[in-house]
Structures
1.
Amino acid sequence: MSTEKKWFSLDLGKKEEASSSCGCGKSGGCGSHKEDDTSKPDGFDQVFDVPMSRRSAFKKLTASLMIGAGAVQTACSVTSGDEAKEKSQIEWEEQFKGNYKLMTEDEKQATVNRLVRSYELRKGDKISMSSKDAEPDVLFGYAFNISKCQGYMDCVSACVKENNQDRKSEMQYIRIHEMKDGKGFKFDEADDNYYHEVPAAGHFYMGTQCFHCDNPPCVEVCPVQATWREKDGLVVIDYDWCVGCRYCMAACPYDGRRFNWSTPEVPADEVNENQHYLGNRLRKKGVMEKCTFCVQRSRAGKNPACVDACPTGARVFGNLLDPNSTIRWVIENKKVFRLKEDLGTEPKFWYYMD
């Protein structure tokens, strides 16, 4: 039996040196550091201690200096109001915050509080944002009943609204593929943008999205470790840590990732104010995003929006570690399959038919 790990795990902290080294990089150590120094890198160290080209490093440094100069100017100005000074302070602290995965619980809460306050200062409206971690003994899984899907796309609309997706580019995490009966699963021949009455005679429908693999290729290729697998199986992204290289997009064999080519636009009256830091919070230009199984809902004990919106009951979601869950019953009692199982990605998304 193979001894390979089912998922890729990375330590975002600084690499531990051999016991003969103090960690400064000099062979044998320099003798100036304590052997028991286990302090983790702060936000500033993390921001600049990542692989990047000289051009990227210069741009990052320039941006930081500009934000810093603006913060100093605002703080020292006698004409600047308290809100302007607070906004500058928030921008400065956000510029040098560390990777979310490395944050302590207090640091996570402080980050969430800053983002909530920043939105209030910019928009005049209030949002709620969670930093809730994975619950113990929970592993999320998803099943899609091909027999029941009629191609209505209510799931797509619900996903767009729930996850604050860009309306201008019509970004969609979920794809519904219309395929011809008797042709098998030929995605290259499927119609993903049909505009006719459904279900169409002689066709069947199949949905795809992020499959939240146990061994996600997207995680392995990320050069700055902005994406990772959580303990409950969710593959997430720290949008503020993403550099937009799109390596993960190329590595995903399921076309599960999307890139923001421009600043996302969501009408103010349509913004979902119930947000999660790793989920549906408002994104910025130039970062990757994708389905998170609606982390803001699933970690609160609810179904993803697409599951509740499906009018035919074609979607099933739940805890794979709960023997009494519907998802477990489906996997144990139906003839299920997963796409591209030969790749060893171990997706947490199954298909079945009645």
2.
Amino acid sequence: MSAGPSAPSGSTAGALRHVLSHLVTPLLMCVGMGLAYLGAFHAPEPHDLRVDVVGSGASADVLAQTLQDRGDGALSVRTVADRDTAVNHLRTQQSYGAYLPGSSPELIVATASSDTSATVVQKVFTDVAAEQGAPLKVTNAEPTADGDPTGQGIFFLLVAVSIGSYASVAVIGGAGAVLALRIRAALAVGASLVVSVIGAVLAGPLFGLVDHGLGGLWAMAWLYSAGILLIGVGLHTFLKRWTTLGVMVLFVMLNFTSSGGIFRPELQPGFFGSLHAFWNGAGFVEGVRSHVYFGGYALGGHVLVLALWFVAGLAVVGVAGAAEAKGRRAASELSRAEALAASRAGVEEEMEEAVAV
């Protein structure tokens, strides 16, 4: 007796092939995330990490040269004349530690620039002070907000805004595929506005990651999110079901790892450090740091990075619009050709019937 109806073997094989083909995407994501995150974060080591030795004369020069030689490329050690110059370098992110030697040695850092870089510098100069037989005093010239004691809250805000942005790409590209591209682009801009407002609420009233400058943070979050959404919506025209993977490569795998939110480029392999100069996540993280903690120093360059990614999004949407218009014209011409062929076939058939009569 039959146990019941079963699907034809051909149908089962087809469904299995369909599932297996779609499993390629998450498996590639697994490989990509592993390569990106472990490649960027698994073994942070300093290289050319700028620090200052405060003082003049032979003793300061000898100490700076000794640290430079001992570091074997890990540190870039300079001497500066006085404490004020050293603090100015920290507040303009030209250095990540300033050491004042003497009977009561002091290290000045700015954790708002990078807590992990400050930790590395502190370890180096704690050993230096120990060799001199003196305890090290550590002064924080630019601390983070009370709601962000590790200085990494901005990075996790970047993660939240990014996820909201590229997840919205999937919805607009998938569920909104039947809509005209101009409507999808408008939805992308609207979604980025909502995502940026959520980001500002998270950063300010909810968790207190920043204690001032919330308006500027929101503006950068909107520019950042809009760039992702426009690029993603435009790419969907070409990548279709591979859009999610493409967007994750651009705005997760390469983006989070090069943002400088956990480790600055001076602690990362060269590839990710080089991306830090122009990737949009780095533009957002460093832009917020500059705006909130460093008096807007170099803010224009970071905003320019975000603006260029936004412009790139507009360009991708423009190219996608041209491609979709071309596709519609080709489909229309094909339909007319098929209709004309059908009409001709009908006429010929009528003529054949007339001749037969």
3.
Amino acid sequence: MLPSWLPVDGYVLALLATVALAALLPVSGTAATVAGGASSAAVAFLFFLYGARLSTREALDGLRHWRLHLTVLGCTFLLFPLLGLAARGLVPAVLTPPLYTGFLFLCLVPSTIQSSIAFTSIARGNVPAAICAGSFSSLAGIVLTPLLAAALLGGSTGGLSAGSLLTIVLQLLAPFVAGQLLRRWIGGFVLRHKKVLGLVDRGSILLVVHTAFSQGMVAGVWRLVTPARVGLLLAAEAVLLAVMLTLTWYGAKRLGFGRADRIAVQFAGSKKSLAAGLPMATVLFGTQASLAVLPLMLYHQMQLIVCAVVARRRSRDPEVPDREDP
């Protein structure tokens, strides 16, 4: 058995198996058209579920921690993109242009909810704040991630044309809003069948990944990636994660947050959501989505391993009086 502080996400293993399946048996022709339609429907359903799950009341109750939430949003949608832009200097020596596009996209997606909460709890941090911070980040990401991608990635996403805006609205925003509007009637059903819907949720993402990587295989984009390049990408992502963990911890201290809030800021502000990023990439990048999501998939597993170690160390910190925010 693996040690508890070294999690290997079973879902990431399933994603890797899906990638391998797409490499061996990519869909093409009519099958690719059908898979593409099913993938688009899966993305819309995912964001419908996100809307149905997000408790508007909990989000509003969390507004009293507005300084913490603004700090996490600033880390997610300002510091991360700035570091991503700075990484442009790694092209072409470390990152190829396609891998850099994926690296920058990684810096634009929202934070996670579940793992941020789990690690904040392990480290004895402010769990309610982590819940709200992750929820706010996910909500903001539905709008900010496509806008930032269009502004910073330019031609890589096809630009922010009327067609791409319509696609974003129909596949991301409209289903999310519908889920929020219907939550009053279906919220109980969603909660009661959380486990089953979770499997549907993850299965939908596996479908999205298989379709995206099949398109990449048919287009021959994977000939551009060598094992050495993947190793360099991992090194760049390790530096990115280390910088963000340091900035969120000491930056939160400088802003006057107490220990429990600093923990919430560190774990919510240094993470990136695989569940939100994968379907967004298929909408924004189309046939180029497979290379665009590779950095995000690798970063996801890396953040789980590193943050598990950090959370365990924080849990052993001596008890100290926690200062209230001014």
4.
Amino acid sequence: MTSSGRKRRPHRVVVLALDGLLPFELGIPHRIFGRPMDADGRPLYEVVTCSVRPPGPVETDADFAIHVAHGPEALATADTVIVPASYEMGPVYDEGRLTGELAAALARVRPGTRMAAICIGVYVLAAAGLLDGRPAATHWADADRFQRLFPKVRVDADVLFIDDGDVLTSAGVAAGIDLCLHMVRGDHGTAVANDVARHTVVPPHRDGGQAQYIHRPVPDPQLATTAAARAWALGRLHEPIQLRDMAEQEAMSVRTFTRRFREEAGVSPGQWLTRQRVERARHLLESTDLSVDQVAQEAGFGTAQSMRQHLQQALGVTPTAYRRTFRTTALRT
């Protein structure tokens, strides 16, 4: 119950289904946002699907259509709008402009609504002018074409997703899962997002800055990988960990280990360690009453000042501000 005695309204996610949509990507928001519950077992989100037309069938890129129960009026009720990829966007994809039907539908979206796109669904946001002067991600294979069509958008072809505040975009397919988990994590913390990830049987966190899997040689499966070193490091984040320590876990030279690690993880061992420690610090700040100094020790940053610098760089807030924001959000839910 809220302070006024009324039940909290779930955050409403409206998924815009366009003809030619990919069924897998359409299902991602429902799977990810349909799971989270509050402490009393009430859904934290309500997910509905709408079309730009009155309720009825929407074609997919498969050999079946889906029946959508809501028309464009649902967009006016959204707290978050998600546009999955579609292969039949017509002038949106070919010319970078909205159809009259799509423009009228998007005009129903309330100012301040969070907008997100999965893969080439980003064309819709760009054609609507929502990405001018802003960074955006899309599938690496489509990035050059997208950039030519929308020169005002700062396209990043390497990352999994980009969170630019009220507008979020992702690369293709599985990166849509990462994006939706990221939104859940930002809304309700790592514990809720990790629970969703466990039940979805996907990694709980792939950082948005992680590289897409493009133009990278695939390691020979018969050769040693760096998975054991990562598992070893995760078990002792609170301790000082040197690059040579991780390389020794795989019986590799530092040079070979660093090259193999970057091929597999898309980042350097040092960058990966910092990200894991940031995630550890976030979890402790959210779920414990440990002091900032204690959190810094447990996460492996050594000092509060070091942790403060890394969190400021990664999250844009100090540890104290992050904890305060999370606790305030938790109280509201």
